[in-house]
Design goal:
With 326 residues, this protein is an alpha/beta fold. It has twelve helices and twelve strands. The protein folds into two domains: 197 residues, inorganic pyrophosphatase (n-terminal core) (Alpha-Beta Complex), CATH 3.90.1640; 121 residues, Diaminopimelate Epimerase, Chain A, domain 1 (Roll), CATH 3.10.310.
């Protein structure tokens, strides 16, 4: 509560705000940005949101999503305060924005990842929270500003995404109570939000998934499994990196797999990685070895290595973590 009070005092003191989040923003990142944007507007502030990567189509049902601007738009804007949401480090917002978004007075860092760094002048880091959206909910509830229907669906979407539709272990009883309240406030149908985020699957993505699953490999003991997505596969199926989201869960579902890995070849020849754990291995610690981060059971990173070399490094490191845990 003390950090909430000091952050609110900061918000009331200054007039112009920039909001950003990590590259390849997910439901929690986007939902949190939009909810805080709406809150600051109610305080009468000038607020703009700048992201390195565009809003994925499946989140374009959220109110005010079109107000999220690309990184280049930040060139002509100087804010009093910069707010970075759901990013384990300042570098995670992307190189251009990291260098361009230099506020006049303060940086506010709000995050829930266990690997989060306290890089802000003001830091609200709550690893016990299910999502950054849950922290934003609690922050707004600590003020005299009400959450409206638009803010409620944004926050619910963020919480739903980061809890795996409330099935992960980070979905606490409090998380469920908050979700119920947001449904009542927002007057939306939870099944419709789920459908928008998880069931609007284009045929091209299914073709990519088919090609990806054919690359599946396992270690001899079956404890580590991985798949790969190459630029050639993306071009062949007319898909993008956004379409790869969720593929790692197919590997995680294999009986006996402790660590699931999905690697994507980037256009620059480097590698994007998604990691999942059955619970015996802290994949946030594994991701941190490659300057990534996230949660104990779900993390990611980018590795400045070709995809084949990156896989070898990841599998070797994952095996060490498994061995350490017996």
């Amino acid at each position: 509560m003390k950090s909430f009070r000091s952050t609110l005092a900061l918000f009331k003191q200054y007039q112009t705000f920039a909001i950003s989040t990590h590259v390849n923003p997910d439901g929690d990142a986007i939902g949190s940005e939009l909810a805080l944007y709406l809150f600051l507007e109610k305080l009468g502030k000038t607020v703009r949101i700048f992201n390195t990567d565009p809003v994925p189509e499946k989140y374009q049902f959220l109110p005010y999503w079109e107000n999220i601007e690309n990184a280049e738009a930040a060139s002509d804007f100087c804010s009093d305060v910069l707010i970075i949401l759901d990013a384990s480090s300042r570098e995670r917002i992307g190189n251009f924005l990291r260098k361009r978004l230099l506020p006049m007075h303060a940086v506010v860092n709000i995050d829930h990842h266990t690997t989060a760094k306290a890089f802000g002048d003001y830091n609200i880091i709550e690893p016990a929270a299910s999502s950054t959206a849950e922290i934003i909910y609690k922050f707004i509830r600590s003020t005299d500003i009400a959450i409206d229907e638009a803010g409620a669906v944004c926050l619910y979407t963020g919480m739903m995404f980061d809890t795996g539709c409330f099935r992960f272990s980070n979905a606490t009883p409090e998380t469920h109570r908050i979700a119920a309240e947001l449904i009542e406030i927002g007057k939306f149908a939870p099944d419709e939000v789920y459908r928008q985020v998880f069931e609007q699957v284009p045929l091209s993505k299914m073709h990519l998934l088919g090609q990806t699953l054919r690359t599946l490999e396992l270690t001899p003991d079956g404890k580590i499994g991985w798949v790969r997505v190459t630029q050639a596969m993306l071009n062949d199926t007319d898909t993008t990196l956004d379409d790869v989201e969720g593929f790692v869960n197919q590997v995680q579902a294999i009986d006996g797999v402790d660590v699931a890995i999905c690697v994507c070849e980037l256009a620059d020849g480097n590698t994007k990685v998604s990691l999942r754990s059955a619970g015996n291995v802290d994949v946030a610690a594994l991701a941190a070895e490659f300057d990534g981060g996230g949660h104990e059971r779900a993390s990611g990173c980018r590795i400045e290595l070709p995809i084949t070399t990156a896989i070898k490094r990841l599998v070797t490191s994952a095996q060490l973590h498994i061995d350490e845990n017996g």
